[in-house]
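TEACHING EXERCISE
Course module: macromolecular assemblies
Task: Read the component lines below, then compare them to the predicted structure of the full complex.
Student: A.B.
Group: 4
Components provided:
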Amino acid sequence: MDVVKEQMDIRKGPWTLEEDLKLMDCITIHGEGQWSSLARGAGLNRTGKSCRLRWMNYLRPDIRHGNITLKEEVLILELHSRWGNRWSKIAQQLPGRTDNEIKNYWRTRVQKQAKQLNCDANSKQFRDIVRYVWLPRLVDRVRASSEASTTAQPSTAATSISIDQNNYETLIPECQQVHKTGLQLQPIEEDIQTQISGTGLDQIQAQISPLSVVSGGNDAFPDYSWCNNFEDGVFYRPEWEASPSQGFDVQALERSNDWLIGGASLGILLNDDSIWLQP
DNA sequence: AATTGCTACAACCGCTTCTAA
DNA sequence: CTTAGAAGCGGTTGTAGCAAT
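Instructor-supplied answer key:
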């Protein structure tokens, strides 16, 4: 009967300041662990599980509150592409961030992007976009911002997270590879021109490496010099005008126009089963 | 000013894994 | 070896705060 009454008294929902203080005081004295007895000892009508969660996700002194930084964003995307939804494992690589926070970040920001692109966040299609489009852009932004901060204000270059670009690339060689391949927009165009003559698109796709980026410029898209025609979501190369059926079908373009706004270096990303526009 | 919709995040739930008796 | 309780993990829900209408 007492047990039943006790269970009915168990509090749920948001923690009050008073509860937080009780929990912190008790942990200061007795340390972490033994959460059930700690909850009782602190005079909290909470489950040990609830106390642990509150401490781990909110009260711990080494928790970093506030927005996810660009560097952290890069790490999360890269590590998720490698490990999937292993939130606690990913969190271990981001000092001060909790698995809950990273999970929330993923759900609110990343899944939103997937939704906008009409694809499943766990699909290969979306993983490719993250890996070959989103990540390289982020890495570039991290570089740009760290360069700017080292030039302007060397003293603030060290952000609150202790991962600099070199550490990051050592930690994630695959991402370094993606960055190199994704952002240096050559010499693939020449390769394509060589390979393209007299072949069909299927054959081209079969020959071109999974990650291929072409840059150029035209009136609508200044970086697409080689691309002088754009109709119905299809890019045509000049030499394809006679047979427009061989154009690149860029369905992603229609679904994500926002990616093009202000996009500096457009390109085409080819992989095994789809062709993507790279902003 | 009121309402609605959206976002971010804290917290809960159910399940699995770990550990000590 | 078995088992019960604790701890850990990932999925999901609830809600406060804000912006748009």
